[in-house]
Structures are given as structure tokens and as C-alpha cells.
Amino acid sequence: MKITGIEKKSGTRYTVYVDEEYFYIFDAEILTEFHVKTGMEVDEAFLEKLKRQSDVRRARERAFYLLSYRDHSEKELYDKLRRNVPDEIAAQTVAKMVDLGLLDDGSYARKLAEYYLTQKRWSFRKSLFELKRKGIDEEAAAQALSDCGISAKEQIRELIEQKYYRYLGDQKGSQKVLNALARLGFSYSDSRAAMSEYLEELELGEEDEWQYE
Predict the structure, then answer these.
(1) Pick from 68, 69, 32: which is nearest to 50 by CA?
(2) What domain range includes position 12?
(3) pLDDT, tens digit, for every residue of 30-48?
(4) What is the distance between the alpha carbons of residues 147 and 140, in angstroms, rounded to a whole number?
(5) Listing from the earlier edge strand, what are the strands of the sheet with 3-10?
(6) Number of Cα atoms under 13 Å in the Cβ half of residue 84
(7) Of 66, 106, 100, which is closest to residue 83 (Cα–Cα)?
(8) Within this chain, do residues 93 and 120 fall inside the same structural domain, yes or no?
(9) Residues 4, 23 within the same domain
């Protein structure tokens, strides 16, 4: 077999042809490292080595790019890498990112847990589901959420005070609030209890004000 063509594709990437047929796209760094030139005689083993090294480099560069954009779980990164390179290389690249300290499921879980509970105002249950969907182990996800020390009662109370209190004047409005809280993952019983407590406190407050008029 022979390298019969090397054509620039874009940037530092080149399309390589073997025996007049398309073979693969390589970065200039790989071609230079292996001294690949037009007319070069090659065998199957050399071509496979060339391709593997190219995939390793591609996976590494892709991993650096993705992690510079935002944090990922190990599973998230693996799933994205394996779209373009063999599973084995994707797994090895993930392990390398962990060794470099660029990938940490525990730290990622803690950041997401706090974000889901305090910014998105999702329930523990919905937050747990999302963490697992991101590839975080269930036990680690549950621990990260628990470590935030935020109760459902606190969350619901804040949501009512900041967003929903104006709807609590009648049955229709109260049901609207219950539906909104359910979409955030809160149970009916927790939502109902928090709403009742809030309304009771409002009524007591109004009575106290009336007594001093």
C-alpha cells in the first residue's frame, strides 16, 4: 500500500489517501510525528497505529475543549467523546482527565446540587433525578444534596413568599400554586403543609395588627 495523496482540509487538518482512496483525516502534528509523505509505502499495522494516535489526540483536544467550557461528570465526558473515537480511547481519555485533576464527580455533584436547590429551586427528588441523568452515582448525588442542608419546607416557603403568595386568595389560585410546586418536584403533602402554615401565619399577623388599631 502507498500514500497517494495528502490534501489540506482546513486549518491544520489534512485528508490522507491510500492507493487513491480516502483513508482518514489527520492533524499536521500526527503527519509530522510519523513522517507521513506522499509516495510513502505503508502497511496495515502502520495505518492502524497512525489512526489510533490521531484518535487519541482528537479525544484529548476535545476533552480539553469541553472541560474549558463547563464542568462535566465522567459519564458525560465519556458519552461525548465516544461519538467520535472508539470506546476504549474515550475511556482512557476520561481517566487521563481525572489524573490531571480536570474531572471530579464529587466536586461537580456539589456544585450542581447547590445550583439545583438554591437557584433552580428544584426539590430534592427532582435534583437527584437530574444529577443521576448527568452521570453522577446515586449515592454521591444524594450525599451532595444532603450536604447542602436545605429542607423542602424552606424551599417551598421561599417560593411562596417570593413568587406565589398573591395566588393564595382562593381555591383556584391555591391549586395553581400546588401545580407549580409539583413541576419543581415537591410532593403534594409537603406543598400543602407549607401553604397552610404560611396562610395561618398571615391570618395571625392580621389579627395582631387589628388588636392594636
Answers:
(1) 32
(2) 1-42
(3) 999 999 999 999 999 999 9
(4) 10
(5) 3-10, 13-18, 21-27
(6) 16
(7) 66
(8) no
(9) yes
